[in-house]
Amino acid sequence: MCYEAQERREASMGVVQMWVDGEWRRRGVATALLESGRERLFFGHVVPRARMAFSQLSSMGYACASRYMQGSGQLLVY
């Protein structure tokens, strides 16, 4: 379960940590990793972005997650 302000929301996928080398940032590597996780976590089902949650976000991680989740609702943090 994730909590958004005072609201409890379900998440199907949690991203604990992700790191991309500085030379490879801004080239879509993080997005490709997140997409791969969404597509392969459950056989025959793609996890909706709105059902993803993130943990331990650094300032750069928050910026990346916010861009990735844009248009999918609120950024869930657990």
Report on the architecture of this protein:
This protein has 78 residues and is α/β, with parallel strands linked by helices. It has helices at 29-40, 59-69, and strands at 2-4, 7-9, 13-15, 52-54, 76-77. Strand 3, helix 1 (29-40) and strand 4 form a beta-alpha-beta unit.
Please write the string of helix (H) and strand (E) elements: EEEHEHE
* Number of helical segments with 4 or more residues: 2
Q: Which range does the strand content fall in?
A: 15-25%
Oligomeric category: single chain
User: How many β-strands, per DSSP?
Assistant: 5
- Category by helix and strand content: alpha/beta
Low-confidence stretches: none
Secondary structure elements and their pairing?
Layout: E1 2-4, E2 7-9, E3 13-15, H1 29-40, E4 52-54, H2 59-69, E5 76-77
Short account of what is shown:
This protein has 78 residues and is an alpha/beta fold. 29% of the residues lie in helices and 18% in strands.
Characteristic key phrases:
78 residues, alpha/beta, 3-stranded parallel sheet, 29% helix, two-stranded antiparallel ribbon
